[in-house]
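Hi P.,

Sorry for the delay on this. The queue was packed all week, but I finally got your sequence through. Input first:
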Amino acid sequence: MWVVTGDGDGLSIGGNHTLHALRRNVDVQILLFNNEIYGLTKGQYSPTSHRGTKSPSTPHGSIELPVTPAAFALGAGARFVSRSVDTQQSHLVDTLKRAHSHRGASFVEIYQNCLVFNDRTFARFTDKAVAADNQLLVEHGKPLIFGKERNRGLAMRSGCLEIEVVTIGENGVTADDILVHDETNRNLATLLAALDTPDYPVALGVLYCDPAESYAQQIHAQIDRARASVPEPNLNSLLRRGQTWKMER
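Then the structure:
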């Protein structure tokens, strides 16, 4: 089943529903359109709006830290977390196919431009002129490389759990130093979800996929175990078990 929601509906008004659907691993595909604004009402700021966002509900600018939807999903225990952009049709279709094939809860964040209330909020990494340098298209088993020249990549900073951007061929960096994407690694997915411009590229694609039994599968298994532990029904033994007594006239 597909559930289509937005950054306001899915992370504020219905945030608890999103949280519990993910942690329970209900067999549902959640498509969250993120335009960093309440685009279907009056353009109020939303949970994903950046600090300083001016809107009818924050005329002097939002003072709140924004929610990162992919990080939220990972924190809720989601077993499938991915990202795409509404205008990148080929990439979006491939991402949706992966989400649909996943059994259990799948979470797809879709960056969507709101022409009316928040136009070009994602232009920093979606415009064709900068996309190659500011997008990281992740693919399981492949190096985390990006850039127009395909010579920039992500490496683990020595001595700490922090990602850094490096350039192959500079400062002794080779292709072997580039991290390889492992979509079953939740810690790596969490690091990728936090990346943003201008210091890092925005990671798109399947950040995390590590299937587990869905909620329905677990419930049916529990029912089967309960049935197996109960003996065949016998009305006579049922009436005679526990406290019984004999009436005499």
